[in-house]
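Interim report to the steering committee. The following record documents the input for Glutathione S-transferase (262 residues).
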Amino acid sequence: MAANKKARSNPPYELLYWPSIPGRGEFIRLAFEAAGVSYKDTTNETEDGIKAVTSLIDASSTGTDGNPPPFAPPALRIPGENPNGGPLLIYQTPSILSYLGPKLGLAGTNEAEAQWILSHALTALDLNNETHDTHHPIAVAKYYEDQKEESLKKATDFRENRIPKFLGYFERVLKGNEKGEGKFLVGDKLSYADTTLWNVLSGLLFAFPKEMEARKGDYELLFGRFYESVEEASGIKEYLASERRKPFSMGVFRHYPELDRQ
Ligand SMILES: N[C@@H](CCC(=O)N[C@@H](CS)C(=O)NCC(=O)O)C(=O)O
């Protein structure tokens, strides 16, 4: 803990994401926290940090310091890592995770494992994106209330067909990875695929509590072993108990009771 604190006072990595919500920034935070590596969460740690995000994605930006402009947050800034000697700026959640994975010791032990980890993280992020579409099936920029009718249809299909398809898939992956004993998707150690899937499951439990409660028992490894094991992992457990962990609210994972199983 003391080492963590010390490291946090001089972070080499800067996460740029919207403040106050877990959102897609959470996938990056969980990787850092699992590895015990320091990072600066600019918008949550500095008064007008949000300007750092809004300026990056400003519609007139053609990039900064020799980096292209990010399309949308999250983005990660790493001092001195741009080939021009300046800060390197990368964006897109899976791109950031695959960059950090080997550096944080969360990308497996060989090339095959590294690719499987990326594949599973992308699949978990697909599930994340499909969850978002249950409350915004028509237009990202419109209010949920303006697309409620379509949301009800989308959420019904999501609950009845997509949730069981994704959960069934990950249950098979856990079963097939005997080395992982139900605790890891790939190999026998924690990876960013595990932390990414865990966050999506956690979000689904928040957004669709009735649906998930009714289905949990069908996935013996996923909810009997994996979920708790990641939650208890070193670094993750401490983070989840800290103030740095923001509650789900109005981001990707939202609890609209009418979209849940009735
Ligand atoms: N595929 C991108 C999606 C990024 C994204 O949609 N970011 C959201 C916040 S979680 C945003 O601000 N989007 C603005 C937009 O798409 O116009 C990723 O995984 O990083």
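Residues 1-9 have pLDDT under 50 and may be disordered. The committee is asked to note this result when reviewing the revised timeline.
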